[in-house]
Amino acid sequence: MGGAVPGQVHVGLQGVSKRYGGVHAVRDVSLEIVRGTVHALVGENGAGKSTISKMIAGVTAPSSGTLTVAGSEVEFASPRQALASGIAMIDQELAMVPGRSVIDNVFLGVESARGGVLRTREQRARFDELIQRTGFDLDGDAQVRTLRVAAQQQVEILRAIAREAEFLIMDEPTAPLTQVESDQLYEIIAALRDGGTTILYISHFLDEVLQISDTVTVMRDGQHVSTTAAADETEASLVRGMLGRALELNFPEPQRCAPDAVPILEVSGLCAAGRVADVTFDLRPGEIVGMAGLIGSGRTEVLRAICGADPRDEGEVRFAGKPVSWRSPRAAIADGLVLLPESRKEDGLVMMRSIAENAVMAQLDRVSRFGIVRPDRQRAEVTRLMEDLDVRASSQDAPVSSLSGGNQQKVLFAKCLMGEPKVLLIDEPTRGVDVGAKRAIYELIVGLAAKGMAIVVVSSELEEVLGLAHRVLVMRRGRMVAELDASEADEETVLAHAFGTAVAA
Amino acid sequence: MTAHPVSPTTDPPTPARPSARGLRMSTLRDYGIVVFFLALFVGLSLGTDTFLTSSNLKNVVDGAVAMGLLACAGTLVIIAGGFDLSAGAIFAVSAIIGVEVSNSVSPVAGIAVGILVGCVLGLINGLLCTVGRINHFVGTLGTSIAYGGMATAISGSGLLLIEDPSFANVANTQVLGFNLSTWILVAVALFCAFLLNRTTFGRHTFGTGGNLVAARLSGVPVNRTLIATYVLSGGVAATAGLIVAARSLSVSATTGANIVFDALAAILIGGNSVLGGEGAIWRTIIGVFILALISNGFNLLGVDPLYQQIVNGTIILVAVGADAWVRRTHT
């Protein structure tokens, strides 16, 4: 696709929106990405960055609005079509065939072949040419799974170039890299840009964004906030753009909790290799502790390591004063600690089974005798919980998949609460839940704490964490970097800790 | 990400009602095989004058016992998310060991040991596929070959005769006009149904097969549950093998060579999901008797039994395909 002039708009969005059900992931965004530049996209979790990149890459289609490439309107039904327009995405989860060689992966789908038969010499020549062009140090015959992540990324980049991609999308590429490898990547990106490639760069690391990009777009809540030259922005101004005004979400009044009560849960030096390092905190009855941090900062992993869903390598967990070593969630549940998992569809509910079956699953002993389920007891317990939590359904025997997101989440809560646990670890209490159900869930959480339950809430929605918690723990890169009391926790402070930028005075 | 008022969600605040089309489809899926079974039954009754006689019907049931036993226990394994390809091999090797013990000690001891062997072989399956992290299909494929080898080694690849004729009582004792073996099938089927529908173990089974991760996080002992289904499958396969041995007072390593595939076919034809998490014993029983009726029909109508396999295979494809298709349109 020759004849492209740097300085022209390469990819443009006009009035683009994306809805998933009733929720807007992206709302009315208009954006221009200029050819031959590094254009960064920043924003909090859920701001819509990944959705925008997926639409450009052809992974999903906009619900409304138009997408243009080199001035002409396009509609991509698949990534393949986007590729035909010269757009390639380098995924966070590198999508390669681990058992095959570098060359095979680079040319997967665009092999040198005649009549279906591979022409390996020609392919190798193409490979050598690519290596020369980019200066990568890659052995064409090495098996991809033996390579370090940084090298695998290079393979992905080569793959994009082999497909003659002129527009590269990189989503959090430096998250798994060391500083040295990141610096190498910055050089590669600069070289690609100088060679005329356009790069859309999504990252949480504001310092690197300012270092390597020409233009920065800030998004918030699915909307476009600003697009400015990187030279005109600072980390602080970016964070301000991402936050916007504090929004009024009514949270129920959190009850006071006795500060000198004996902790029910004590975690010290918790380590899980590669995911979490040296996490220490206490939890008292009646307390709600929020855990904030960016995606990948280790919050879910901390919860899973505590309750026995994942093994923990080091550190101690004490429950009601006694050290425990729960090897499975079953053991934790028996003692009185339950995890409400992040994805109800994947980890929380058996979608094809009924509401009643899901609700009693963690406490079958309560509704059975000698291993035989008593249908009357089950019905009574489930009815009670459904009333308490206001689950709207045609009957307890309806499959959980027939419920709305908010009601499904309530069934998940019902399951976790049936055994009246002393500690409840909640991972994303209101994901995929509409506003009305959200409020109900907040009231539920506050009510539980008022009755003495100790609760940890992990959430990517900052207002949620701030609105509910007595104390906020902030995680970054697997470590706990701050413990803030409700009075000192505000959005800017928490985000500053989460991003690792200096707190604005 | 914040609480700005969102336009009404597509999920209604009242419980979502399955679409009318979805309802028709699921009823079809649920009861289509019952209709098919009844059609077969009626067709054969009208098409031949020997079908609807008590001696023929008893024959049909007798012939279905071994396959029916494997299918019932195999249903639990499949619902739990497993897959027992080795049931046929366990069938053979347990019967052989049982017969050897019967010959050297007594029939009662032989039967007890045979069933025990089946349970132990099932336990090995279960351990390999849970703790051993081997894929269920691959694991039981491997053990089916290993156990089959054991059967050949112990029996010397010949026919083993049962010396004590009272062994045959296991199968042939008449109770209320039916063979004891028939009643054993009834008892096992009822027991499996009871386990599935009325016990916590049954709930664990559905949970483990329906969503392994969610079940584990809910405190379901998923490994124990899977292993238990394999042990049951092994014990019941052994029982089936002993019954078949009792009938002819002999056993060889090739007994039951294809029986596991017939059993799996029955499970799937009945409408159980091969992916697990859903299913019922009554479905399996209908599947068993559909296969039995087809076989009986071929005999009575004098059709070449070679074609029977083509028919059976086609029915499986239709049954499983229809199930997959209905799921697709449903979601």
Based on CA atoms alone, the radius of gyration of chain A comes out at: 25 Å
Question: Largest sheet of chain A at a glance?
Answer: 6 strands, mixed
Shape of chain B: globular
Distinct helical segment count of chain B:
13
Give the overall shape of chain A: globular
Give the low-pLDDT segments of chain B: 1-20
Percent range for β-strand residues of chain A: 25-35%
H/E element order of chain B: HHHHHEHEEHHHHEHHH
Number of strands of chain B: 4
Please provide the count of β strands of chain A. 24
Question: What does the secondary structure layout of this molecule look like, with pairings?
Answer:
The complex is a heterodimer of chains A (505) and B (331).
Chain A: E1 9-20, E2 23-34, E3 38-42, H1 49-57, E4 64-69, E5 72-74, H2 79-84, E6 87-90, H3 102-106, E7 113-114, E8 117-118, H4 120-134, H5 149-162, E9 167-171, H6 179-194, E10 198-202, H7 206-212, E11 215-220, E12 223-229, H8 235-243, E13 265-272, E14 276-283, E15 288-293, H9 299-307, E16 314-319, E17 322-324, H10 329-335, E18 337-340, H11 344-348, H12 355-360, E19 368-369, E20 372-373, H13 375-389, H14 405-417, E21 423-427, H15 435-450, E22 454-458, H16 462-468, E23 471-476, E24 479-485, H17 491-499
Parallel strand pairs in A: 3-10, 3-11, 6-9, 9-10, 15-22, 15-23, 18-21, 21-22
Antiparallel strand pairs in A: 1-2, 1-4, 4-5, 7-8, 11-12, 13-14, 13-16, 16-17, 19-20, 23-24
Helix pairs in contact in A: 13-14
Chain B: H1 20-47, H2 54-79, H3 87-104, H4 107-129, H5 136-155, E1 159-161, H6 169-172, E2 174-175, E3 178-179, H7 180-198, H8 200-210, H9 212-217, H10 222-248, E4 250-252, H11 259-269, H12 281-301, H13 306-330
Antiparallel strand pairs in B: 1-4, 2-3
Helix pairs in contact in B: 1-12, 1-13, 2-7, 2-8, 2-10, 2-11, 2-12, 3-4, 3-5, 3-10, 4-5, 4-10, 7-8, 8-10, 11-12, 11-13
Describe the 3D structure.
The complex is a heterodimer of chains A (505) and B (331). Helices cover 33% and strands 26% of the residues of chain A. Chain A contains 17 helices and 24 strands. Chain A has 505 residues and is α/β, with parallel strands linked by helices. Chain A is globular, with a radius of gyration of 25 Å. Chain A starts with 8 loop residues before the first strand and ends in a 6-residue tail after the last helix. The mean pLDDT of chain A is 87. In chain A, helix 13 packs across helix 14 (405-417). In chain A, the strands form six sheets. A six-stranded mixed beta sheet of chain A has the order 6-9-10-3-11-12, sandwiched between helices. The relative contact order of chain A is 0.11. Chain B has 331 residues and is mostly helical. Chain B has a single domain (20-329), classed as ABC transporter involved in vitamin B12 uptake, BtuC (Orthogonal Bundle), CATH 1.10.3470. Chain B has a two-stranded antiparallel sheet with strand order 1-4. In chain B, strand 2 and strand 3 form a beta hairpin. Chain B is globular. Chains A and B meet through helix 10, helix 11, strand 20, helix 14 and helix 15 of A and helix 8 and helix 9 of B.
